Amino acid sequence: MLISARNINHQYNHGSGCLQVLQGVDLDIEEKDFLAIMGSSGSGKSTLLHILGCLLKPTSGTCFLRGRDILQLQEKELAQLRAETIAHVFQQFHLLPTMTVLENVLLPSLYNSIPPQQAEAEARRAIQQVGLEQRLRHKPNELSGGEMQRVAIARALAVKPDLILADEPTGNLDQDSSQEILTLFREINQQGCTLVMVTHDPEIAGQARSTRYLRNGNLQ
Amino acid sequence: MAIFNKPVSNKQGYKQGYQIRALLKTACLSLLQQKLRSLLSILGIVCGIMAVVAVIAIGEGAEQETMRHIKQMGITNIYIRADQLTEEQQQRAKQHHSAGLQNSDRERLRTNPFIRRTAGTRERTRNLTDLPQGLHPQLMECTASYGDILGIQMALGRFISETDTVRHHQVCVLGSQIAADMGRKGQLGQEIRIGEQLSLVVGILARQDGEDGQEELKTKQTKKTEITKVTKVTIQNLNNIIFFPLDTVAGKTEAITTTATTADPLTGQLPLTEILVEVKQADQVKPCAALLRRSLHKAHNGFDDFQLIIPLELLAQARKIQGIFNLVFAIIGAITLFVGGIGIMNIMLANISERIHEIGLRRAVGARPEHILIQFLGEAVLLTLIGGIIGILCGVLLASFLGRLTGWPIGFSLPVLLLPLAISVMTGLFFGIYPARKAAAMDPIQALGSPS
């Protein structure tokens, strides 16, 4: 078991009151799984993903990553988990516009413990894996949307994470590019990396190994 | 891919160098991305530092010049200088039976235990008759000790000696400039005619440092009457003087001193222009000066036709004035830099809100708040450092230009160049810390999700 989350509750406090997004979510993620979490917009699926990605602490609950409660960790240890163990892929890609493809993929190596030379070798390997070895020196604005998302995936792969969290990774892409990304995800999953993907599109979710639905703050 | 055997800390030395290089590159790129904006934002710093450098350099030059003058005058020396009297004052001097500064005044000082030695000089305005046209050397009678007290160096021959003054030898010593100007006539063994009298050239001075012409130093000296009056202290340009032994002038009545045209009715001697007193120790200068003033006041029957010039006091005054100048200047510089610093803060805040996604992303891929803090603080410091370097270059140019335009001496020392650099870095740190802290404190999810 890679992740075992129990009774996760989360509420956002607004000036006018509070919004309960997650209500007692239990979630187990097996090693080497490829899980799709579905739900309508505003159902809290991104919030759940942020909690799993150590970017957000829920109001209450426990979340064990290989038996270690990540909700009890200090910011420094959480940062290390984000730098080495858990990687994110975002809907808006979030590449730095002033940096080249290679530099973008190398960005996490600033904050993890991989030696610089090894980090560069890993980055090149990851870029090759997503099929962009011809675009190493290009800037993001010279790439198509699908290519940008592949760079973002390479950035995630370069740290050799145990878990990749993808938040609507195909939300900004056309049909063909979406399919490319999903093929890539399946390939990565077959190589032993656990993937959790959030989507509202049943067709996309159908390509995962398993699917869960988030409704009214509960997983079904 | 086990997670728990990975080291907790990533602070290995090699990694830090790598991080610094990468962050520096990011900072440079982001500044270059907005060239015009970066340039405009550092303009305040550039102006501030430029002003700081230029004024420090000019102030330093002035101070060096003042110090050089005063040290040339001698820290342990006291100059007793005869006042130039108006006709009315001369009448009063007669009533008081004061004959001005006399050699007898000097003789009396010899018994003072604080004093090592004394010298007397008498300036003369009568020109030589056989000099080439256009040469106007200063003529000065002096005792042998004058050369010793001022530490005069000889290029050739000797200075006026004790024997010259006692035996009234008809000799003279030339300053280096006048010797050179006189050409063949200005060599050892030549004779120079003054009035009806020939004087043998026995020595030529080594060249003294300092510019040509008479150098004047304006200082304020408080007199006993508590009235502050500006006194002109003239430092002799030794290069343009012809020295004679004291009291060896032919036709004493022809000689005109700056003090009075009349001789002492008792001794028939002309008054001296200046008595130079060398005190044994610097800390004895002040009490000694007070003593001299009292005894001269008494000897001149209560008529103060002289003034005391004390280089040590001038030095203290010069330092005090310099201190005020520096303070005023520091305030102006601080205000300019404050304004410049606010510009930096402004631009960093704009930078951060534009790069909010970058901050969120860096946090998501493992950056700790400290990393973000260091990154943006580093960018602010880089900005001010560049501004500081440009400012220093401009300041040096400005000071050199002003120096050439006005003839002011300009002093550049290492502190003049390093202090503004340190100030600019500190400005960057001071005004960069708030935006950097703001960036570091951002919630990564909000940063990532904010509308672009």
TrEMBL record, chain A:
<keyword id="KW-0067">ATP-binding</keyword>
<dbReference type="InterPro" id="IPR027417">
    <property type="entry name" value="P-loop_NTPase"/>
</dbReference>
<feature type="domain" description="ABC transporter">
    <location>
        <begin position="3"/>
        <end position="220"/>
    </location>
</feature>
<dbReference type="InterPro" id="IPR015854">
    <property type="entry name" value="ABC_transpr_LolD-like"/>
</dbReference>
<dbReference type="GO" id="GO:0005524">
    <property type="term" value="F:ATP binding"/>
</dbReference>
<dbReference type="Pfam" id="PF00005">
    <property type="entry name" value="ABC_tran"/>
</dbReference>
<dbReference type="GO" id="GO:0022857">
    <property type="term" value="F:transmembrane transporter activity"/>
</dbReference>
<keyword id="KW-0547">Nucleotide-binding</keyword>
<dbReference type="GO" id="GO:0005886">
    <property type="term" value="C:plasma membrane"/>
</dbReference>
<dbReference type="GO" id="GO:0098796">
    <property type="term" value="C:membrane protein complex"/>
</dbReference>
<dbReference type="GO" id="GO:0016887">
    <property type="term" value="F:ATP hydrolysis activity"/>
</dbReference>
<dbReference type="InterPro" id="IPR003439">
    <property type="entry name" value="ABC_transporter-like_ATP-bd"/>
</dbReference>
<dbReference type="InterPro" id="IPR003593">
    <property type="entry name" value="AAA+_ATPase"/>
</dbReference>
<keyword id="KW-0813">Transport</keyword>
<comment type="similarity">
    <text>Belongs to the ABC transporter superfamily. Macrolide exporter (TC 3.A.1.122) family.</text>
</comment>
<dbReference type="InterPro" id="IPR017911">
    <property type="entry name" value="MacB-like_ATP-bd"/>
</dbReference>
<dbReference type="InterPro" id="IPR017871">
    <property type="entry name" value="ABC_transporter-like_CS"/>
</dbReference>
<protein>
    <submittedName>
        <fullName>Putative ABC transport system ATP-binding protein</fullName>
    </submittedName>
</protein>
UniProtKB/TrEMBL annotation, chain B:
<keyword id="KW-1003">Cell membrane</keyword>
<dbReference type="GO" id="GO:0005886">
    <property type="term" value="C:plasma membrane"/>
</dbReference>
<dbReference type="InterPro" id="IPR050250">
    <property type="entry name" value="Macrolide_Exporter_MacB"/>
</dbReference>
<keyword id="KW-0472">Membrane</keyword>
<dbReference type="GO" id="GO:0022857">
    <property type="term" value="F:transmembrane transporter activity"/>
</dbReference>
<feature type="domain" description="ABC3 transporter permease C-terminal">
    <location>
        <begin position="331"/>
        <end position="444"/>
    </location>
</feature>
<dbReference type="InterPro" id="IPR025857">
    <property type="entry name" value="MacB_PCD"/>
</dbReference>
<dbReference type="Pfam" id="PF02687">
    <property type="entry name" value="FtsX"/>
</dbReference>
<protein>
    <submittedName>
        <fullName>Putative ABC transport system permease protein</fullName>
    </submittedName>
</protein>
<keyword id="KW-0812">Transmembrane</keyword>
<feature type="transmembrane region" description="Helical">
    <location>
        <begin position="408"/>
        <end position="434"/>
    </location>
</feature>
<feature type="domain" description="MacB-like periplasmic core">
    <location>
        <begin position="38"/>
        <end position="287"/>
    </location>
</feature>
<dbReference type="Pfam" id="PF12704">
    <property type="entry name" value="MacB_PCD"/>
</dbReference>
<feature type="transmembrane region" description="Helical">
    <location>
        <begin position="373"/>
        <end position="402"/>
    </location>
</feature>
<comment type="similarity">
    <text>Belongs to the ABC-4 integral membrane protein family.</text>
</comment>
<dbReference type="InterPro" id="IPR003838">
    <property type="entry name" value="ABC3_permease_C"/>
</dbReference>
<feature type="region of interest" description="Disordered">
    <location>
        <begin position="87"/>
        <end position="108"/>
    </location>
</feature>
<feature type="transmembrane region" description="Helical">
    <location>
        <begin position="39"/>
        <end position="59"/>
    </location>
</feature>
<keyword id="KW-1133">Transmembrane helix</keyword>
<feature type="transmembrane region" description="Helical">
    <location>
        <begin position="327"/>
        <end position="352"/>
    </location>
</feature>
